UniProtKB/TrEMBL annotation:
Annotated Malic enzyme NAD-binding domain residues: 260-510
Protein's name in the database: NAD-dependent malic enzyme
Residue span(s) of domain Malic enzyme N-terminal: 70-250
Organism this protein belongs to: Nitrosomonas supralitoralis
Domain of life assignment: Bacteria
PANTHER family, sorted: MALIC ENZYME-RELATED
Organism lineage: Bacteria, Pseudomonadati, Pseudomonadota, Betaproteobacteria, Nitrosomonadales
List of residues binding (S)-malate: 146, 397, 441
Pfam families the UniProt entry points to: malic, Malic_M
GO BP terms: malate metabolic process
Keyword Metal-binding: yes
Obligatory cofactor(s): Mg(2+); Mn(2+)
Family per similarity comment: Belongs to the malic enzymes family.
Active-site positions on this chain: 93, 164
GO function term, MF aspect, one: NAD binding
Amino acid sequence: MKNLRGKALLTDPAHTKSTGFTYAERELYGLRGLLPYDVASIDKQIERVLGSLRCKNSTIEKYIFLNALLERNQRLFYRTMIDHIDEIMPLVYTPTVGEACSEFAHIFRNAQGFYISPEDRGEIATILKNWPEEDIRVIVVTDGERILGLGDLGANGMGIPIGKVALYVACSGIHPAQCMPVMLDVGTNNIALREDPLYLGYPYPRLNGDAYRSLVDEFVKAVQLRYPSALIQFEDFLSPHAFEFLDLYAQKVRCFNDDIQGTAAVTLAGIYTSCRITKKKFTDLNIMFLGTGSAASGTAELAVDAFRAAGLNRSQAQKRLWFIDRKGLVTARNENIKPRIKPFAHEHAACSFVDAINEIKPDVLIGATGVAGTFTEAVISKMSSVNERPVIIALSNPTSHTECTAEQAYHWSNGKVIFASGSPFNAVQFKDHLFKPAQGNNAYIFPGIGLGIYASAARLVTQSMFLAAAEVLASTVSEQEIHSGSVYPALSRVREVSHAIAVAVCHVAIREELTSLSLPEDISGYVRSLMYEPNY
Ligand SMILES: NC(=O)c1ccc[n+]([C@@H]2O[C@H](COP(=O)([O-])OP(=O)(O)OC[C@H]3O[C@@H](n4cnc5c(N)ncnc54)[C@H](O)[C@@H]3O)[C@@H](O)[C@H]2O)c1
Ligand SMILES: O=C(O)C[C@H](O)C(=O)O
Ligand SMILES: [Mg+2]
């Protein structure tokens, strides 16, 4: 415990137990007189935390309160989060984190995470040595250009890596000291931010072209030097940069893009589970996407792998996937089709979104636009008229940017829809049924992927790992959850899910010869032994 004593120990967030120090510890560490009489159990402290939390009037105040707790007492924060994940996750992650990013410069208290600006060019490897931890296993990095559906938030986007790191710890048990949030602050094209006198970031237009790419490259290389065991998670980069960096680095370093690959796996899992409700065969499904960006094309690409694994050839698989953009159906006749969308631009007459649903009759509709209200009543009614049980996944975050709300989905489909959404919604009473929509968020995937990479020390992160993660996630959904309309397991089981995903990742790493570790026979027990449990 770093020989901490007295006030220094009491105020050290990683080591304090606050009122939880026993009398013997108070004697030993020079804490007598520094604490009130009562020795509180962690459960009693949690009760106090929840009492104060629930008095706050707004979600942003709750965010600030929880962040302050994290800075004060790490173990208490994570124990509270793990034990009350349904209540806490939406406050430290999506959707509140969106609000926190928008307000970041105004609610800022203390720097968390690592900031790199263009002025650090040529010195990134050197300044990385300022980070106090020696054994980093997970780095979540953003350049803030596509923060959820909120657009370019510049350095305010740091809230996202901080939130994702909290999920790594709470949802898969990677130790907080081994996770690092990073902001590649290359400027912002958001003029309102640059003009905000309180803005904390590099107050210039975004770097672009070679200047931008070479800074990202320097960062990736510096990480290999300073933290060779780290996994780099690219987060909330705008496409096409998102794809560009994935294509450039995925075969060279231990990295993945969460918006492309993590999202693909969670969405695919939801589709797999929906087949248990609809009784449709997976390989018979037609899937339609609204939006042609990272999340949608990443999902389509993983779906191709899934269809192929289930017996279709590549061309048959691609034909099951359809894209809608702002102008309607993307067909082979369109001009300037994005390279990643080309395989899914099929021969078809041009038509509107609703007409495309009528003609193609997709079983599954996925929204990844970042634009609220794009699943209109006409869209949902049409999905319900061509399907007995339409499957609709509105991925966009935060809640204010969702393609449709859960309430709209159940009402407009007359209770027929199987619905999931990127941001959480409360249960919806429709007629005599209480629907509990599930949260289709990559939070079910990336923590387990990270833990699996940590455990296996795999050199690379591969598509097969995401495919395996999707299968594992789908397999964890219980019959009861399915009955209540959920295609994902309850959040309260997310650690169990992450553990299972990590075990699957280890198996893929062995199968694909990506690890030089000789993993113990009991991989499940081994992975569990790595999971941090915040207790005193
Ligand atoms: N639930 C999750 O786990 C999860 C994961 C990743 C992304 N997302 C969310 O998905 C959204 C999109 O993320 P992305 O990374 O794919 O962004 P992106 O910018 O790469 O893609 C957005 C796409 O939507 C299209 N679009 C915008 N408005 C449209 C409209 N009215 N009609 C049709 N298409 C339209 C854009 O042209 C673009 O192709 C964001 O809100 C993000 O928060 C959710
Ligand atoms: O951050 C989230 O909640 C999911 C996803 O990574 C997103 O960008 O929306
Ligand atoms: Mg994201």
